[in-house]
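User: Fold this; tokens only.

Assistant: Input:
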Amino acid sequence: MKLYITRAIKQFLFYAILATVIISIMMALDATDVKTYKELFTSQQWNQMILLLAGLSAIYPIFGYSKRTINLNAVYHREDVIRVLSLNNYKLVEESENSMIFRGETLGKKLRWLFEDQIEINTTNEETTEISGPRKEVVILIFRIQTYIQNKQ
């Protein structure tokens, strides 16, 4: 639950900063009727926007992160998995007998996921592996790992 709340707060801060930048650009270009920040922050629309951003941030961790199972023994294909994730700017930071944890290698990758860029790969038995992390990255990595292994054979 702590991880969920942390992700939601990070997402809210990201949305708030993004909205502030967009509004600032609009004000600088005279593309809005609001002439000062004081008018903006005291208006009812701003309160509604904060509630909307809070709502989006609260549900984002549910849809933004996932755990998928694939038919692959990641322990057997360890070098291939590390190679594919390395090509996708992830580095191995922790490893145990049946588990590998990767983190983003570049600052851009870390910022893209608001420093919630951890990919965890657990081999549950001889034939299946669970991959968890940001949903978009998990889907891309599963496709690339399977494609890499199929083309190697």
